[in-house]
UniProtKB/TrEMBL annotation:
Residues 37-181, 211-350 form the SIS domain. GO terms for biological process: carbohydrate metabolic process; fructose 6-phosphate metabolic process; protein N-linked glycosylation; UDP-N-acetylglucosamine metabolic process. This is Glutamine--fructose-6-phosphate aminotransferase [isomerizing]. Catalyzes the first step in hexosamine metabolism, converting fructose-6P into glucosamine-6P using glutamine as a nitrogen source. One of its GO terms (molecular function) is glutamine-fructose-6-phosphate transaminase (isomerizing) activity. It comes from Longibaculum muris. The chain holds residues 241 to 600 of 600 of the full protein.
Length: 360
């Protein structure tokens, strides 16, 4: 087993560090002359759909939340993202004009498979986004696209998540392209630079190790963000609770005033993500509200966002806003990872969790 860790202390850390490579693998051959190539979907006429569903569990659901926002903006189709255990029992509005996308690293999650069967029964066209070749989901869906993350051993998902994001962004713009919508060429161009940026962020690991020291003795941590950043903080909070057992919740920053702000007191730690320029100023004003109540803040943002008196600010590289969802995942993973290490937790095998939940 030690050999397979390639010199890393844990599988989780090894998998975090594999991200530049596996993101590049997932992108390989997908962008040719500024066009997105997903040959697996060649025979789908996307004009037949009037709505899109994303269905998944856990981390794959958070990737779906991000993918759903990107797809909706790119195609102007209505998109709904939902967790599989809800979808399967809530009589979803699915018919022949529905495109249903199922995201699953393992391709074996019981709820996601049941949801897929239901969508097919209702007449939807189904696409699986899977990591494991030949998995049940990849056989059962009408179409399949693979993330090229390679085997993910650690229970907490890292490289599967970022490669799902990459593939879902490609898929969103592929559908937009097929529908004749305007394409964000800057985004397409920058996709190939993401592995290098991830590499650079990984070199800053000691910064995130220091942030983790702020969380070591806490029972609770608060994550806030808006828009795409909300999907990112949901995943950041999930990662932290999974591996370090610090109770972490993620809130839409605009909802703080409707309840969560009551929890903030001297010494509370707020991890804020503000990478989306159209809404960053609003999140920053929410951060200030938490600081006024004694919160210590870790802010992950982009250059150009002026924030005064924040204890810790990390500036992400300068890429188009949609791609920040991929980059910001890295600091959030490392904060969770180092918090778990400092606390002496079994990072690769957190208590009560399974890598793949194949029973309901
Ligand atoms: C389990 C794992 C999570 C994963 C979820 C969905 O809960 O611990 O890391 O995100 O299942 O798994 P899937 O294989 O369907 O992506």
């Amino acid at each position: 087993e030690a050999a397979k860790k390639d010199g890393y202390d844990t599988f989780m850390l090894k998998e975090i560090y594999e991200q530049p490579h596996v993101i590049a693998e997932t992108l390989r051959g997908r962008i040719v002359n500024q066009k997105i190539v997903l040959d697996e979907l060649n025979d789908i006429d996307f004009h037949q759909f009037n709505k899109v569903y994303f269905v998944a569990c856990g981390t794959a659901y958070h990737a779906s939340l991000c993918g759903s926002q990107v797809l909706e903006r790119a195609t102007k189709l209505p998109v709904i993202a939902t967790v599989a255990s809800e979808f399967r029992y809530n009589d979803p509005l699915v018919d022949e004009q529905t495109l249903a996308i199922f995201v699953s690293q393992s391709g074996e999650t019981a709820d996601t498979l049941a949801a897929l069967r239901l969508a097919k029964e209702k007449g939807a066209t189904t696409i699986a986004i899977a990591n494991v070749l030949g998995s049940t989901i990849s056989r059962d869906a009408n179409y399949v696209l693979y993330t090229c993350a390679g085997p993910e051993i650690a229970v907490a998902s890292t490289k599967a998540y970022t490669t799902q994001l990459v593939l879902l962004i490609l898929l969103a713009y592929y559908i937009a392209q097929e529908l004749g919508k305007e394409i964000d060429h800057e985004l397409i161009q920058q996709l190939n630079t993401i592995p290098q940026y991830v590499e650079n962020i990984l070199k800053d690991h000691s910064i995130f190790e220091n942030y983790a020291k702020m969380l070591e003795n806490l029972h609770d941590a608060y994550f806030i963000g808006r828009s795409l950043d909300y999907a990112s903080v949901l995943e950041g909070a999930l990662k932290l609770k999974e591996v370090s057992y610090v109770h972490a919740d993620a809130y839409v920053a605009g909802e703080l005033k409707h309840g969560p702000i009551a929890l903030i007191e001297d010494g509370s730690v707020v991890i804020a993500v503000a990478t989306q320029p159209h809404i960053a100023a609003k999140t920053i004003s929410n951060i200030q509200e938490t600081m006024a109540r004694g919160a210590r803040v870790i802010l992950l943002t982009t250059h150009g966002e002026e924030v005064k008196n924040v204890e810790n600010t990390y500036y992400l590289p300068d890429v188009v806003p949609t791609l920040q969802a991929i980059l910001v995942a890295i600091p959030l993973q490392l904060i969770a990872y180092y918090t778990a290490c400092i606390k002496g937790c079994d990072v690769d095998k957190p208590r009560n969790l399974a890598k793949s939940v194949t029973v309901e």
